[in-house]
Amino acid sequence: MTKKTVFLTGATGNMGWAGFKELYRRKDRFDIRILARDSRKNRKMLSPYIGDPSVTIIWGDLTRYEDVLAGVKGSDYVLHVGGMVSPAADYYPEKTLKVNVSAAENVVKAVLAQPDAEDIRVVYIGSVAQYGDRNPPRHWGDVNEPQTPAKYDMYALSKIRSEEIFEKAGLRRWVSLRQSGILYPGILKVVNPTAFHVPVGGVLEWATIEDSGRLLAQVCEDWVPDEFWNQKYNISSGEQYRMTNYEFETRLLNGLGLPGPEKVFEPQWFALKNFHGMWYTDGDRLEDFLHFRANTPIDEYFATMKSKLPWFYSLAFLAPAWAVKLFMKPYAFEKGMGTQWWVDNDPEKFEAYYGSREAYEAIKSWDDVRPAPLEKNLEKARDAGEAPAVM
Question: Would the pLDDT of 284 be above 90?
Answer without folding.
Answer: yes
